[in-house]
């Protein structure tokens, strides 16, 4: 299943054809799409997902199943957003979300082969209402995935001002 399809026009414009099959790479692009959203949230220059894929290939960040979490951290740090890859207990997740958006690995069921990875998405807040179950907003494949955030108690930190070189 293609969870983060890369648009054919973007793939062709940015030289994705040199990497091979667009659909195959799209199946492994969720971590890089998440990285792009984090970069944009902090006002950093953000390459297209295709350009980030090419960078990830160059730095050996990708495996046959997707991006290494440590590799995404390295790319994020190199691109101006200091980061860390670490397990976060569910009890500590709300405190993390108070400080910044977080890339998390989610799955309906862990694979039988012992892997613990899943689909990488951005969490950017939560509703501070213990009577409500966590909710997510998922659009059609390829669209952004978000957790609804309406609480004034936990706003997303103000992103940096856009770079003057951006149009």
Q: Describe it for me?
A:
With 167 residues, this protein is of the alpha+beta class. It has one domain. Helix content is 32%, strand content 11%. The protein has six helices and six strands, in the order ααααββααββββ. It has helices spanning 8-13, 22-26, 30-41, 49-58, 69-78, 90-99, and strands spanning 62-63, 66-67, 102-106, 119-123, 137-138, 145-146. The strands form three sheets. It has a two-stranded antiparallel ribbon with strand order 1-2. A hairpin with a 2-residue loop joins strand 1 and strand 2 (66-67). Helix 3 runs parallel beside helix 5 (69-78). The protein is globular. Residues 135-167 have low confidence and may be disordered.
Helix content: 25-40%
Spans of at least 5 consecutive residues whose pLDDT stays below 50 are 135-167
Rg, nearest Å: 16 Å
Distance between the termini: 35 Å
Sheet with most strands: strand arrangement = 1-2
How many strands appear in the DSSP assignment?
Answer: 6
What about the largest sheet? 2 strands, antiparallel
Strand content: 5-15%
- Mean pLDDT over the full residue set: 74
Number of domains: 1
Which term fits the overall shape?
Answer: globular
């Amino acid at each position: 299943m293609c969870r983060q399809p890369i648009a054919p026009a973007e793939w062709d414009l940015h030289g994705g054809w040199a990497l091979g099959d667009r659909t195959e790479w799209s199946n492994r692009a969720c971590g890089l799409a998440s990285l792009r959203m984090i970069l944009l949230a902090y006002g950093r220059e953000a390459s297209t997902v295709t350009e980030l894929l090419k960078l990830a290939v160059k730095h050996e960040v990708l495996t046959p199943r997707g991006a290494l979490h440590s590799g995404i951290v390295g790319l994020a740090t190199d691109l101006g957003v200091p980061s860390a890859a670490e397990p976060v207990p569910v009890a500590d997740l709300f405190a993390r979300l108070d400080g910044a958006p977080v890339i998390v690995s989610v799955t309906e069921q862990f694979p039988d082969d012992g892997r613990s990875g899943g689909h990488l998405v951005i969490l950017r807040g939560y509703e501070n209402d213990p009577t409500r179950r966590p909710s997510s907003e998922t659009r059609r494949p390829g669209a952004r995935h978000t957790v609804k955030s309406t609480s004034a108690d936990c706003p997303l930190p103000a992103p940096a001002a856009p770079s003057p070189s951006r149009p």
